[in-house]
Design goal:
Length: 531
């Protein structure tokens, strides 16, 4: 019996089964290198072949539709050609360009761009395979109930691997925020990722246990361990079923409704969240519209996206956060300058109040969507009352324009502020008298209160949402909201943490905007606490 452990928590749950170790070797990985023109030709042919394969696959897969948008990005081919010009073979150039671009995307602390890193890696892997013998399905032979063991699972694998068929998976690379882990959590498939050394420890046919909750994998367990985990697997399944039952519930505390909203980063997320029992969307991150495209999305494109999100909410609130971009989240076409201190720099509402035409295009799109749904608008990174006043003034201007053009919108659209800076906490009472709701963004609030970068592992011990200073800040915000009779929610990660629910409920938090995979868990937790 061998046990391997990691601190990464990918997808909880227990699975016991037979290992299927994925073999990704292509026919050959070397060929005789030609002159740069020959290699460039080879690369272009492989690129064309890859594009055609992706086009076919994109017809019924969202993942490949995203690949189709990326495959022709000149950034990809420029990086490869640069290496060919330096004397590399097309195959080596593709591998090198892949490593460089992936590292560049991964260095950015942004979930959307991290997901793009995986897409880029995936596309390069396809081109490399086409250069050396063709793409094959590495999951051929996976049997019902198998546990897949692989170096890494990439987005395109999701189109080939049926998650409803396997019992769990383990990978040597990857992070908890990767696309596959998000899907695994949504489908309750136990997974352990980032487990270095797993490939040299396990072979196909071995019995393995995946303990996603503990970040542990047991290979060839002894009888006692196997029995123990079989019981744990059954208990976990029973708990999931109970949680699932709680998903549709309406929760009340002393006669007051307690809401479990969801955080969404795309229109599809909104649909998934509502189907999973969310009482609404507490944070609709609008950045995806701006980051997916190589030019600013038009007012009409934004309107269409907000409208379909609002319709998917079926009358439940849809809280659209205005563009939170800048600093570390750059959009190339906006030409942001590099900053020494991006988290303290030009981002979010600061950018929007300066790029007013762009901001107004977004506000008009939000207002137009509000005519057909329960839409709320929320401003990020506010630190002064003046910022809120200016943003509201622009909103009023947009309303007047729409009115004069005879375009419908919700005259009483609710306006909220994200409380994610110490400044906003300290002036919460003033902000409360100028808005309809707050949403506490603990992801940023923790980093600013504790002066600890949210993405820097070296200060992870300080980046602690349970620190006394952070908890006091949260308490102050909720009290200020209550005093002004303003709704107060939380959309930072802390809201999704079942261990925090009791504490937050005790502070009188009545809106929890959580990850889609946490909706039923948080509802179940609230139900239990309020029994
Ligand atoms: C937050 O800061 O808590 C938040 C929800 O916003 P983001 O994670 O998008 O910065
Ligand atoms: Mg934030």
């Amino acid at each position: 019996m061998r046990v391997l452990e990691t601190t990464v928590r990918a997808s909880e749950g227990i699975a016991v089964g037979r290992a299927f170790v994925v073999d990704r070797c292509t026919a050959s990985t070397s060929y005789e290198k030609g002159a740069p023109e020959v290699e460039q030709n080879r690369f272009e042919q492989a690129l064309q072949q890859s594009r055609e394969q992706i086009e076919t696959l994109a017809a019924d897969s969202e993942i490949f539709a995203a690949h189709l948008e990326i495959v022709d990005d000149p950034m990809l081919s420029d990086a490869v050609v640069a290496h060919i010009d330096e004397g590399d073979s097309a195959h080596d150039a593709v591998l090198q360009a892949s490593a460089e671009l992936v590292a560049m995307f991964e260095a950015i602390d942004d979930e959307y761009l991290a997901a793009r890193a995986a897409d880029v890696k995936d596309i390069f892997a396809r081109i490399a395979a086409n250069l050396t013998g063709g793409v094959k399905n590495p999951f051929e032979g996976v049997a019902e109930g198998d546990i897949v063991v692989d170096a890494e699972l990439l987005p395109s694998d999701m189109a080939l691997l049926d998650f409803n068929k396997i019992r769990g998976f383990v990978t040597a690379e990857g992070s908890a925020t990767s696309h596959v882990c998000i899907i695994a959590r949504n489908l309750s498939v136990p997974a352990v990722v980032g487990l270095k050394g797993i490939l040299s420890e396990v072979k196909s046919g071995d019995t393995i246990i995946v303990d996603g909750s503990g970040g542990r994998v047991v290979i060839e367990p002894d009888i006692a361990t196997l029995d123990e985990y079989k019981v744990r697997e059954l208990n976990h399944k029973a708990l999931l079923a109970e949680q699932q039952q709680a998903a549709g519930a309406e929760i009340f505390h002393n006669g007051e409704r307690v809401y479990v909203f969801a955080n969404a980063g795309s229109v599809e997320d909104v649909e998934r969240a509502i189907a999973a029992g969310a009482d609404g969307i507490g944070l609709f991150r609008s950045e995806f519209l701006y980051m997916q495209s190589s030019v600013e999305p038009s007012e009409q494109q934004q309107y269409e996206a907000y409208l379909s999100a609002a319709r998917s909410c079926k009358g439940k609130p849809l809280t659209i956060r205005t563009l939170d971009i800048g600093g570390d989240k750059a959009v190339p076409y906006l030409g942001f300058e590099r900053e020494e201190n991006p988290f303290l720099g030009w981002r979010a509402i600061r950018v929007c109040l300066e790029l007013r035409d762009m901001f107004c295009r977004q506000l008009r799109a939000i207002l137009r969507a509000s005519a057909e749904g329960n839409v709320r608008v929320m401003f990020p990174m506010v630190v002064t009352l003046e910022e809120l006043e200016q943003a509201k003034e622009l909103l009023e201007q947009c309303k007047s324009e729409l009115k004069s053009q005879g375009v419908a919108y919700d005259e009483n659209i609710k306006v909220g502020v994200m409380i994610e800076t110490p400044a906003a906490v300290l002036i919460a009472d003033s902000l409360a008298s100028h808005c309809d709701f707050f949403s506490i963004g603990t992801n940023d609030l923790v980093q600013y209160v504790m002066a600890a970068d949210r993405a820097n592992a070296k200060v992870a011990n300080l980046y602690n949402p349970y620190s006394k200073a952070v908890l006091r800040a949260i308490e102050m915000v909720i009290a200020a909201a209550d005093a002004a009779d303003v709704e107060c929610g939380m959309c930072g990660e802390l809201a999704s943490d079942t261990e925090a629910t009791e504490l937050l409920l005790g502070m009188h938090l009545r809106e929890y905007s959580v990850n889609i995979s946490s909706i039923s868990k948080i509802k179940y937790q609230l139900n239990n606490l309020l029994k």
